[in-house]
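Field log, afternoon session.

UNIT: design team B
ACTIVITY: writing a sequence onto a fixed backbone
BACKBONE:
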């Protein structure tokens, strides 16, 4: 058991498979409870619940690391905003107006945005394999989005929800490159602090939403969805994602977002009763090839 856990903790791409599975599930769940759980309430209780869950585990490390975290409060605040608070809130708002499949497909824009931010902030240039991998994966996403029809692809348009999702992704993409500046503390200390900050940042918006009359409806399924959001795509997934970036870097880890449409399609078939078509198979195959190329470590430039 210990050896298996050690291997898991040392395998960035195994961790990233789980991360994207949990995040894909979060989008499906977020769409499923749209209209039942207000979007800001879902995001607020997601991070508040994750914070309370992680606090007990993180407390011994947090006590030791607190002085370091305080010295780097500005960076912690920036990471909490980009990686936690805004992305999830805006995504849940977008899911009120668009389908889960649309939201999942757009996740594959994230690796491109990560590469753009890494270049803009630090001058990092993607290798040929990375660039080719991104391009092939995007072709796969386009294949799924268009149902394999060029005419449908040419007439794709963004609705209100799609716009919210894309804006959320643009903000979230800066999180990965910025993680290189995170305080040198235990991962649990970092995660629980970022979650706590996200909860505090969202509290005024949650209270405003509640004051407008928004309430949680739908009974236990809605609360079960909120519990899922707090545990797997929040505490567990962000813990694994932070570790993955430590192992292989933000640009390469960011390519894993192409897995979300794959997992999302499967979850949609299993839980939403959507049909699987030949173009899904073709698109997923292209996405898989793209991930393999994008995950290759660029060769060092000759000196």
């Amino acid at each position: 058991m210990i050896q298996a856990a050690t291997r898991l903790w040392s395998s960035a791409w195994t961790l990233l498979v789980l991360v994207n599975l949990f995040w894909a599930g979060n989008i499906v769940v977020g769409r499923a409870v749209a209209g039942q759980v207000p979007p800001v309430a879902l995001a607020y209780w997601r991070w508040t619940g994750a914070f309370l869950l992680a606090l007990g585990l993180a407390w011994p490390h947090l006590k030791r690391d607190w002085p370091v975290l305080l010295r780097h409060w500005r960076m912690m605040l920036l990471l909490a905003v980009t990686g936690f608070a805004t992305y999830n809130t805006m995504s849940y708002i977008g899911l009120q107006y668009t389908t889960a499949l649309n939201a999942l497909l757009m996740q594959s824009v994230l690796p491109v945005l990560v590469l753009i931010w890494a270049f803009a902030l630090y001058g990092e240039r993607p290798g040929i394999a990375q660039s080719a991998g991104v391009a092939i994966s995007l072709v796969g996403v386009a294949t799924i989005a268009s149902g394999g029809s060029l005419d449908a692809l040419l007439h794709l348009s963004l609705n209100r929800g799609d716009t919210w999702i894309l804006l959320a992704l643009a903000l979230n993409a800066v999180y990965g490159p910025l993680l290189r500046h995170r305080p040198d503390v235990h991962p649990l200390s970092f995660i629980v602090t970022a979650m706590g900050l996200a909860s505090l940042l969202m509290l005024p918006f949650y209270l405003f939403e509640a004051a407008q009359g928004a309430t949680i409806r739908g009974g236990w399924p809605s609360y079960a969805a909120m519990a899922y959001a707090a545990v797997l795509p929040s505490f567990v997934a962000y813990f694994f994602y932070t570790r993955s970036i430590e192992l292989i870097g933000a640009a390469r880890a960011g390519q894993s977002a192409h897995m979300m449409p794959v997992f999302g399609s499967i979850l949609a078939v299993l839980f939403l009763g959507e049909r699987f078509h030949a173009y899904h198979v073709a698109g997923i195959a292209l996405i898989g090839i793209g991930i393999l190329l994008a995950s290759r470590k660029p060769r060092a430039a000759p000196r």
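LOG NOTE: Residues 299-303 have pLDDT under 50 and may be disordered.
NEXT ACTIVITY: expression trials, pending approval
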